[in-house]
Amino acid sequence: MARLAVRREVAGHLQVDYDVSERRACQATGFGRSSERYRKRSDPQVALRMRLKELAAARLRYGYRRLQILSRREGWEVDHKRTYGLYRDEGLSIRPKLPERRRAWRCCQ
Length: 109
What we know:
It comes from Methylorubrum thiocyanatum. With 109 residues, the chain is mainly α.
């Protein structure tokens, strides 16, 4: 089974070289017309994802709720559900506090 990009190129080649319709080219190759017409959409939230990662890296103890507030202050139109989804997709999490090392005090004798 050929990859989709290759099949799309073959169907386009048939259309141009043999002057056949898209329907006939797709039928000859066994390639669906909806797959032929499909164009990948870019993720419109790439900039927001990058900004959330920057904020999370700068503020290690902030969770998604606080990052949502900060991003809204910067002018992003984002609600808590989208922030949570992006936060989870990027694998971000609150870094736990490290326990303080207690010193053993010795009494002077």
